[in-house]
Each structure stands twice: as C-alpha cells, then as structure tokens.
Write a structure and sequence with these properties.
The protein is mostly helical. The protein has one domain. Helix content is 71%, strand content 0%. The chain contains 4 helices and no strands. The longest helix has 28 residues.
C-alpha cells in the first residue's frame, strides 16, 4: 500500500498543480502576446512531458523484474492517460473566466507526452 501511495502521489500532485494553473483567469507569463504564446506553449509541453514520466513510473514500477514471457513495460497507457488528462483540463478551462478549450494546447500537451514516450522507449 505504501508503495502504491508513493508511486501515485506525485502523479496526483502534478496533475493537481496543472489543474490549479488552469484555474487562474487571465494567466499570462509575458506582456508581449508573441512571447506569452511561446512561453505558455513551452510550459504545456514540459508539464505534460513530466506528467507522462510520472504516469509511466507509477504504471510500470517493478516491471523490470518480471519473469521471461511476461508483458514488458507499458508505454501506451501512460500516453493515453496523459492525453486524457490534457483533454479533461481543456474542458475544465471552458469554465474558467477568460480561458477556453484550445485544440492547439491539447496538441502541444500530447506532443510533450509523446516526446516523453520516445525518450523512455529509447532507454529500454
């Protein structure tokens, strides 16, 4: 039980932090519209890349010790969960004043998670 808690607590904390940031109306990181868009997209990319790593860690912990013939590490489930959370978060933003559902943000979220998947697959 303690192991499950220590694996999933970082996932919950990270997704809670993303949810909190998405709840802030008029969130800007720069006065310049150009730089605000660039920096916010970079933040989405990084946040969801890290989210993928955390989901991957929680789902695949201990699988390196599986006996031969058992299924290996799962790379797709963390990708699906990260994408699903990004989709959920974009829906959530529809209810925040001055925020809205942005397909562009969802694509950047998925791209960050997908890069995380590629990095981890290369390490296996």
């Amino acid at each position: 039980m303690k192991k499950i808690f220590s694996l999933w607590l970082p996932v919950g904390f990270w997704m809670g932090a993303v949810f909190y940031l998405s709840s802030i109306p008029n969130l800007r990181v720069s006065q310049s519209n150009f730089w605000d868009e660039i920096l916010r997209s970079a933040a989405h990319f990084i946040l969801y890349g890290i989210g993928y790593f955390l989901f991957f860690r929680a789902i695949n912990f201990g699988k390196e010790n599986l006996p031969a013939g058992r299924a290996g590490k799962n790379f797709l489930l963390p990708l699906f969960l990260t994408f699903f959370y990004g989709f959920f978060d974009e829906i959530h933003q529809n209810f925040v004043p001055t925020r809205s559902f942005q397909v562009q943000d969802l694509l950047v979220d998925f791209s960050g998670a997908f890069l995380g998947k590629i990095i981890l697959e290369e390490k296996k």
